[in-house]
Amino acid sequence: MRNVVLYMNTTTNGRLDDPFAWFVGMSDDQYAEVERGYKTFDAILVGRVTYEEMYEYWPGAETEEGDSEVNRRMAKMMNSYKKYVFSRMPAGDPLKWNNAELVTVDSDREIVKAVRTLKEQPGEDIHLAGGASLAQTLIRLGLVDEYRLFVHPTVSPGEAWFDKIEGNRTLDLISATTFDNGVVALYYRPSETPGTDEEPSSELWAGSSTS
Question: What DSSP state is assigned to residue 33?
Fold first, then answer.
């Protein structure tokens, strides 16, 4: 079965929003690790707003003059992935990015069903790419199988990955790696997956219809 992997940069206090306010940049050794991780995916889960932001950048980045070779390689992977775009509202215009498919869901129950179905299909692991409400919802529903967090040496006020959960979640450490820019990669696997063995509620998933 495929795994859903949250693969993200964050602050030491777990901030997930507005990376331009706190991102310290990526060193060459971190780029190499990120690229290695991207090769373990063949699909991404993304909310509608984040999809639009990614679509503005990645298609052109593959051939952007003056850009780094590693970034072009990462762009090529992003453009080749199957993109599952989660939204509470049906699409207005067709999705323009290649390999993009709208997944219309308006409740926790439908999200659990959709993600379980994707995990049961053959293929590589699935990158949970955001936005904030989609990532927080999948974390809350116990649908994330692995956390790969690149923790930057800064604290910053804002939304955090685990703001929506109730109670404690125990994680098993897979690895910890430090990089030249002071970032630490912490890879975790949940000790147990909460919520997925129970019938999900019909509660609307957190956030707006286009997150």
Answer: H
DSSP codes, 73-107: HHHHHHHHSEEEEEESS--SSPP-STTEEEEE--S
Which tokens belong to 153? 């040496």
209 part of a folded domain: no
Q: Calculate the alpha carbon distances from 37 to 84, 177, 196, 202 in Å.
A: 19, 13, 26, 34
Identify whether 21 is part of a domain.
yes
101-125 pLDDT, tens digit per residue, is 999 999 999 999 999 999 999 999 9
Which range of residues forms the domain containing residue 116? 4-190
Contacts of 142 (CB under 8 A, 6+ apart): 190, 193, 194, 195, 196
Distance CA 99, CA 85 (A): 10
The total of other beta-carbon atoms located within 10 Å of residue 171's CB is 13
